[in-house]
Amino acid sequence: MRIMMYIGKYEDYALAKLIINRLSSNGVEVVAARDVEVKNLGIPKWDGSQDVDMAMVIGGDGTVLRFIHEVTNSINTPILHIGTGRVNYLSDVSARELPQVLDRIVKGEYTIEERLTLKAVAKDFECTALNEVLVKGVDPGHLINVTIVEDGGEEIMRARMDGVIIATPTGSTAYAWRQEALLSIVGWPLS
Q: CA-to-CA distance for 83 and 64, rounded, in angstroms?
């Protein structure tokens, strides 16, 4: 088994070292996603030529999204997000659950939950998104022409607008959660 490590903030390297020691002692090969992990963890960098069974991403939700954008072919790699951020909406496991989770991973006792993603294409830009894509004009107050097309080529919508947010089920659920949290913070009643 080969696992890739991606760390969001410096404070999480101590946790990453504990994880690496536990996995390595069970015969799991651990590789680094970037040079910064090689430097701070002393593990070899993944060169892209070999498959990885999963990526362990340690950090907040933004770290997972950054991983997806930075690491080539990460969209096809199963991700275990170990939440150490403030919100951790996307996290699969907390640090305190790790010993049991790592043992199950080594034994192959896990399932992979597939998530829908979006691909946004503009004139000079292309990206894949796990949560949502925001399309807006650069000039506030000026409308833009937006065309939304399904993967198969069928046009869903064409309109002039201020902007549009297109969300996956992952992103739309996060928005619902954030809205609920915002309403409870400002004291509005929740239904």
A: 9
Model confidence at 119, in pLDDT bands (50, 70, 90)? confident
Whole-number Å distance between alpha carbons of 182 and 16: 33
**What contacts 102, CB < 8 A, 6 or more positions away?**
19, 22, 23
pLDDT at 172 over 70: no
CB 56 within 8 Å of CB 80:
yes
Q: Which of 35, 51, 61, 139 is catalytic?
A: 61
Residue pair 55/67 in contact (Cβ under 8 Å)? The answer is: yes
Whole-structure pTM value: 0.74
Give me 21's structure tokens. 């020691």
Structure token pair of residue 5: 């490590």
Q: Which amino acid is at 58?
A: I
Active site annotation includes 61: yes
